[in-house]
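Chapter review: from sequence to fold.
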Amino acid sequence: MKIAESDLILNSDGSIYHLNLLPEDVADTVITVGDPDRVGEVSKYFDSIDYKKGKREFITHTGFVGKKRVTVLSTGIGTDNIDIVFNELDALVNVDFESRTVKTKLKSLNIIRVGTSGAVQPDVPMGTILASSYGLGMDALMNYYVQDLSPDEQSLLGELENHFSDLKNINPYLTAASSKLLNTIGKNMDKGITVTAPGFYAPQGRQVRAKNAVPNFIGLINSFKSGDNRITNLEMETAGIYALAKILGHQALSVNAILASRVKLEFSKEPNIIVEKAIKMVLESL
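The token string follows.
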């Protein structure tokens, strides 16, 4: 079935609309970062860089770490941008742009997010590098996609829905990390459920001037526990990454540099050092 021009938009040079990339520009291993300025902080460790491209907030460098070809790409903030990045990454490797049809043989990318986050548990200190075992989305992205949950995901999501039953008009969704990447890249990292919020302030329990509709949001999320599963941290992309990766057949892992303790009301004095640590840990484990 041919994909409509209005559904899959290509630029005049044949590159995909937002990312401005051609199919040959994407490596099988992709590191995503939120901040466009962080792309260079990753690629400075590459042994060689084949090219650099950019459009809007989407900056891409592709090169080699040893003999492994790696792409690092900035997504910007939030799951709305993740929707763009993951659909376009998938199209770049799994759609024939000439015929506008899905390829017979599909490719599965290894996608690793390296991002910042705040801890919601008192025993997760600033400076921790944490791998998300699950992404729990409090945003609306998955209202628009069909998900197929595993029995474990369905069971844990049911418990989470009961825990958050007082939160009206929120339909949480849950997806597990790639077990392959969690057991390799994330092997020596702390692990926990990561909550993905649709904003930075009230949706993450912060209050500056506007009054919060959900009092004690941090206490609500950090009180959940099911067996070995507990919510450890908050950010704005992981759940969308995990859900879309699974829907599209890719492997995904979110690696979180913990810069803040939300329970101790503290923020790191050395955020760049913590992010650097996370970048090096990921690159050394590729």
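Two observations follow directly from the output. The domain at 1-107 is CATH 3.40.50.1580 (Rossmann fold). The longest strand covers residues 251-261.
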